[in-house]
From TrEMBL:
This is NAD-dependent epimerase/dehydratase family protein. Gene3D superfamilies: NAD(P)-binding Rossmann-like Domain (3.40.50.720). Residues 3-227 form the NAD-dependent epimerase/dehydratase domain. InterPro entries: Epimerase_deHydtase (IPR001509), Lipid_A_modif_metabolic_enz (IPR050177), NAD(P)-bd_dom_sf (IPR036291). SUPFAM superfamilies: NAD(P)-binding Rossmann-fold domains (SSF51735). PANTHER family: BIFUNCTIONAL POLYMYXIN RESISTANCE PROTEIN ARNA, BLL5923 PROTEIN. It comes from the Bacteria.
Amino acid sequence: MNILITGATGFVGQSLCNFLSRKEQVNLIVGASRSETKINGCHKTINLYCDNGQITVQDQLVKHLQNIDVVIHLAGRAHVMRDSGFDIEAAYYKANVEYTCKLAEAAAQSGVKRFVFLSSIKVNGESTNHPFTASDIPSPDDTYGCSKKSAEECLFKIAKNSTLEVVVIRPSLIYGEGMKGNLSSLLKLVKRRIPLPLGAVKNKRSLCSLDALCNLIWLCVMHPNAANQVFLAADNKPISTVELVNAIAKGLGVKARFIKIPQFILKLVGFCLGKKDQMERVLGNLEVNVEYTTETVEWTPEQDTQTALARLLSSTSNF
């Protein structure tokens, strides 16, 4: 089997390339990246962009995808909380919708069998009263989530009109070696033993292990039941923000320090600082039900987020 992975130098991409390189069924792994530097686990690296930053024209994409059996599309514009500006919607559309659709169209023309797309739980929404399920009607709240939803719709339209099989994976917040973003920022605060005003927070949020996610992507490549499906990805049980901080502290070998401040005060402070959405994400619930995923492709998610996260941090010096 020959596999092409976009975003191969990214957080998920690097781990996935190494993971797939150990599979006997995989003959060739092509890593697609803006730089053609060597990627561990990949047999070959290519650049799908022109010199001006635009995606390669369609006939060149088709040429690159000759003899490729499966495309795993990880590349895209990631969600960044500080994103703002007049053109941000266009930037997300270009990276997450236009690029995805052009690549999938070329894959269909090239005879690629399956297209696995890493989407986001943000397609379902930002918060939950009841755990999200794969059958929920999408309800994204921000530009990033809307762009991922539009990309999914485009992919299934292409699949309907071709022989290309599409698989969509919507992971919750991913943790693993090399993680960045909000988890990395929280890790730095805990490492410095800075007291966090989260002692009164009692919420439930689902995280997703990078190792388990790589295994799910592999199952979506191989499993016949995965064709033209949407799968949610998360650890088996959600944890609270306090439990998350305690797990990080345990892994780093420090003691977590909390200050108990009522949630309504934290929300008010967030509103006054223009950080209302960010505060809601820290304080609110986001639970994910992965039963459909586990039953359909026989996936085993991480069972204990706290233990897995603590173990990861205690065994790695990269944090």
